[in-house]
Design goal:
The complex is a heterodimer of chains A (314) and B (612).
Chain A: H1 16-36, E1 40-41, H2 43-46, E2 48-54, H3 61-70, E3 76-80, E4 82-91, H4 98-112, E5 117-124, H5 126-154, H6 157-180, E6 184-185, H7 187-217, H8 223-255, H9 258-288, H10 294-297, H11 301-307
Parallel strand pairs in A: 1-6
Antiparallel strand pairs in A: 2-4, 2-5, 3-4
Chain B: H1 6-23, E1 30-38, H2 47-59, E2 66-70, E3 73-77, H3 81-95, E4 104-112, H4 116-120, E5 127-128, H5 130-133, E6 135-142, H6 144-165, E7 173-176, E8 179-184, H7 187-200, E9 204-210, E10 215-221, H8 223-248, E11 254-258, E12 262-268, H9 273-281, E13 285-290, H10 293-298, E14 304-310, E15 316-322, E16 327-328, E17 332-339, E18 345-351, H11 353-365, E19 370-377, E20 380-388, E21 396-400, H12 405-416, E22 424-432, H13 434-488, E23 491-492, H14 494-523, H15 528-560, H16 564-596
Parallel strand pairs in B: 5-23
Antiparallel strand pairs in B: 1-3, 1-4, 2-3, 6-12, 6-22, 7-8, 8-10, 9-10, 11-12, 13-16, 13-19, 14-15, 17-18, 18-21, 19-20
Classes of the chains: A alpha+beta (314), B alpha+beta (612).
Chain lengths: 314, 612
């Protein structure tokens, strides 16, 4: 079987400007939604109480809402996964201890319907929430700096910089989607975002690796042609790899249940945009930053003589 | 050129065999068990205990499928949960005849049903997190400021009695913020006092000051003393929590310090979360103080603490008490619900030696005055007993108040379980019911299984034989990962299972890279053997680079993540390491075995490479 029979070099770099404008527009849209709507943070970040209740029959969300309202509890009630599962979110209230709150909810619901079974309670104090948000940002920062440094050492600063620009813009787009649809942004989603960051950088690395190799082989070709040849050579691998990873993520989306839903969703968006940006955004950036053969060839001068005959191996 | 030396095959075979061995326990499931451990320092779980449990079970007609005795206590397995529950009641009744004062903790547990020889080589099943097995997780914040204040008040009392002993007159000792201020009429007395205090209490920094009216001695805790006080406070709280958790009968509780001032409590398998919370959350401390009778008469609130007192008739009145603490909860060594000579419910308590000495002195000097016992719960104090000191007493006395017998039992339990050095507050709680835990395992497992199958089918169809080799390598990767998790006993959570799936999805990248590269080399006209060799060699650099960048993100998560994210990060990082080994070394070994020893290879079974 063979999906990709690419006989000539695809001139990606000719359209570099278009790709970057598309991605810039998406980026600004994401920023707009983030600024305008904001993220719907889970209680892990905001602090509060969350109670998941399971009923024997389909739960009457409206009735649960009125019951809580009557007791003076301002909470968000919604179905979770199935019609029999209900998720109740209560914000942090001053002077109300958590122990009392989740117990109060349980007693109220039990009084209404004896079949109500509490499946999960989560309480996060406001001080913990602040810390989590802070640590999340720190993790993002450390990852970004770490990747730039590594790519700088292994390749060149231009590669590190363009890879991180391309992939951080993926992160912003994922966050933008979460803001637009008001999906819940929880700790696992944060983990997914960081995993995507590491994973998409992979993609850029694979292309850059080939670019470096081809700079040494294709002595006379201009820079855009070297980059085009490299992308063309790895494009089938890019699509197959992402397809496999996405297959795994899709089964997570289908079978993983509500607990992994947003985690898998964040990964899906990240993988799809990752292909685009790490190949079609990062490479032009490298080109515009002024990557040049002389930055790679010097180190391998001895070997260089015989390589000219190799030409393009694609 | 595509041959590994024999030792390399042997090494890989050995690694796979070891991984199989350590993965094995995960397949045996769990059997219900009863766990008995010591609840007191003086009681040991030893062979005598084994004998007692065996006789008890025999007398009750129950048959354990196996009993193990180790450093953690005794564990008896049973065929079903029915026998397990019966056995628990039987053992409990036999070992703890006095229900209020148990010597042993008898708890229900689930033990791995893997055979003994596996356990002997430390091959254990993966350690499941609370979100998978159900249970309660609490994060408690210790109020260090309160611990400090308490300590300073105690020093204040000590200085007061020291100055009295040395016959040095002072004009008042008061705590202001985190300092103690001792007033003197003249500088000479102050200097003498300063020397005496410095000799007696070396952990205080003393500064001399003159506020124009009085000569002052300002005492603060030295930084080193402050640090050790805080460490002591958190240690005492952990000890107290341990004792309280023992009363709950939890098989494998985790009580650990986290950071400078936090404590994590994890109670796997606990169903009655309300009770757990109540027992843990009881931040009760007991204090014995003298009533300021002058303030009581004048109604003044100057320099006194005021606590409500619930009278027998149900009315509530305010009692002003002196700020000086006589004894505190940590000095109580025993407590028992009882009745006084008038058959009213009372609590009979016993103090440690130091507490007894203070009590004797205080009662001798304050005969016929009022003394209050104050219970501080959740930051609010209540005078549970206000009584006239009828005679001098020491370490043993009775507390009477408007109690019901039930309340005296509760109170004695509270006193016995020890007091906390500092109040604590629950700042994070996660409770997961056991049914949800099972469901989480199932869902995570299913997602991984189907994803794995899809990848294997695709790879085998697309790269034919090489795809199958890649699939085997991916399977070995999963095996290595599970074995490593079992061996390290790292906590597996639901995000951890997701990380297994994701890692597998990402790991296949390495094999795709290699296979694509081999195809490319063939298209470029290389011979099959040379293509294999060049494919692996050229792909290696790329694989390394791309995995390092993923690992950087994983490590950042590991360092900064907490709770569920940490579980994800651990598996993710381990998975990246195992995938480098399996997708490069193991798959190469398989390819070498298949092709390396043939002299002539006409064509590689790696799918269609003929177009060009």
């Amino acid at each position: 079987m063979e999906f990709f029979k690419i006989r000539r070099v695809i001139p990606f770099m000719r359209h570099a400007l278009v790709f970057n404008i598309i991605s810039l527009l998406t980026f600004f849209a994401a920023v707009f939604f983030l600024a305008h709507k904001g993220l719907h943070f889970s209680i892990e970040f905001t602090g509060g109480t969350l109670v998941e209740v399971n009923y024997q029959q389909a739960a009457d969300v409206e009735k649960i809402r009125t019951t809580l309202d009557k007791a003076g509890l301002k909470g968000e009630v919604q179905n979770f996964g199935s019609s029999r599962d209900v998720l109740i979110r209560l914000p942090v209230e001053k002077g109300q201890s958590n122990a009392q709150l989740s117990q109060k909810v349980t007693t109220l619901l039990r009084a209404e319907d004896a079949s109500a079974e509490v499946r999960r309670v989560e309480y996060v104090g406001p001080q913990v929430g602040e810390e989590l948000a802070e640590h999340g940002l720190l993790a993002l920062l450390v990852t970004a700096i770490g990747i730039v440094l590594y790519l700088w050492i292994r390749f060149e600063w231009r590669f590190g910089l363009s890879a991180i620009i391309a992939n951080l813009h993926d992160v912003v787009i994922i966050l933008g989607c979460f803001a637009l649809f008001q999906w819940e942004f929880s700790l696992p989603v944060l983990a997914a975002v960081l995993a995507v960051l590491g994973y998409s950088v992979n993609e850029s690395v694979v292309v850059f690796d080939r670019v470096r190799e081809n700079f040494r082989k294709m002595r006379k070709a201009p820079v855009p042609e070297v980059i085009d040849t490299s992308i063309t050579a790895v494009i089938s691998r890019t699509i197959i790899t992402h397809g496999c990873t996405q297959a795994m993520v899709t089964t997570m989306l289908l079978f993983g249940g509500p607990a992994l839903h947003y985690f898998a969703l964040a990964l899906t968006i990240g993988i799809c945009f990752g292909i685009y940006s790490s190949v079609l955004v990062a490479s032009p950036l490298v080109m515009w930053l002024g990557v040049d053969r002389s930055q790679f060839v010097r180190a391998t001068k001895k070997k260089g003589a015989g390589d000219e005959n190799d030409g393009a191996v694609v | 050129m595509n041959r590994y030396p024999a030792w390399r095959y042997a090494l890989i075979a050995f690694a796979i065999a070891a991984a199989l061995l350590y993965t094995l326990p995960n397949f045996f499931g769990e059997s219900p068990a009863v766990q008995v451990s010591s609840a007191k320092a003086t009681v040991k779980a030893d062979a005598a205990l084994l004998g007692r449990v065996e006789t008890a079970l025999k007398a009750g007609g129950l048959q354990a499928t196996g009993i193990v005795l180790d450093a953690n206590g005794l564990r008896a397995r049973f065929a079903d949960t029915d026998a397990q529950l019966k056995a628990r009641d039987l053992i409990e009744k036999n070992l703890n005849p006095d229900h209020d004062n148990p010597s042993y903790v008898v708890a229900l547990n689930l033990l791995s049903a893997s055979p003994g020889w596996l356990t002997a080589v430390h091959a254990l099943p993966m350690y499941l997190g609370l979100d998978l097995r159900g249970g309660v997780h609490f994060l408690l914040q210790v109020d260090m400021q309160a611990a400090l204040v308490k300590r300073l008040e105690a020093y204040g009392g000590e200085i007061r009695s020291l100055l009295r002993d040395k016959d040095l007159r002072h004009a008042g000792i008061a705590r202001e913020g985190s300092t103690l201020r001792i007033r003197f009429r003249d500088a000479a007395t102050r200097d003498k006092a300063s020397q005496a205090v410095a000799a007696q209490i070396p952990s205080l920094d003393l500064a001399r000051r003159d506020d124009g009216q009085d000569q002052l001695l300002v005492a603060t805790l030295k930084p080193a003393a402050l640090k050790s006080e805080q460490e002591l406070a958190i240690k005492q709280n952990i000890t107290t929590l341990n004792r309280r958790v023992n009363q709950l009968g939890v098989a494998e509780p985790v009580i650990q310090q986290q950071g400078a001032d936090r404590i994590v409590v994890q109670l796997p398998g606990v169903q009655d979360t309300a009770k757990a919370k109540e027992i843990l959350g009881r931040t009760a401390t007991l204090e014995v103080r003298l009533v300021d009778e002058e303030a009581m008469r004048s109604g003044s609130s100057f320099n006194v603490d005021i606590f409500p007192e619930r009278k027998r008739d149900g009315s509530v009145s305010n009692v002003p008490v002196k700020k000086q603490l006589l004894v505190t909860g940590d000095q109580f060594v025993g407590a028992q619900g009882t009745f006084d000579q008038d058959q009213r419910p009372a609590v009979s308590v016993e103090l440690n030696e130091a507490g007894g000495r203070i009590m004797r002195q205080a009662t001798r000097e304050n005969l016929h005055k009022l003394m209050a016992i104050i219970l501080i719960e959740k930051g609010k104090g209540e005078a549970i007993s206000v009584a006239t000191i009828q005679g001098e007493f020491g370490a043993r006395f009775q507390i009477t108040g408007s109690f019901t017998p039930n309340e005296t039992n509760d109170l004695s339990l509270l006193i016995r379980a020890g007091s906390l050095a500092a109040p604590m507050e629950i700042i994070e709680e996660r409770t997961v019911g056991p049914s949800l835990g099972k469901e989480n395992i199932e869902k995570g497992f299913n997602a991984t299984k189907w994803g794995f199958i899809v990848i294997v089918l695709f790879m085998s169809a697309y790269y034919t034989l090489f795809g199958m080799f890649s699939s085997v390598a991916l399977g070995v990767n999963l095996l290595f990962l599970v074995a490593l998790l079992s061996l390290l006993q790292a906590t597996l959570t639901l995000p951890g299972i997701a990380a297994i799936a994701l890692t597998l999805g990402m790991a296949i990248d390495a094999n795709v890279l290699i296979n694509e590269r081999i195809r490319e080399e063939i298209r470029a006209g290389q011979s099959p053997q040379a293509a294999i060799s060049a494919g692996y060699e050229r792909a290696w650099g790329t694989i390394l680079d791309s995995n390092v960048t993923t690992l950087i993100a994983g490590l950042a998560l590991l360092i900064f993540g907490s709770g569920p994210v940490r579980g994800f990060a651990v598996v993710h990082c381990l998975g990246i390491l195992t995938s480098i080994v399996s997708s490069v070394v193991v798959s190469r070994a398989i390819v070498n075995l298949a092709y390396g020893h043939r002299r002539r290879v006409a064509k590689l079974a790696i799918g269609n490479t003929a177009w060009k």
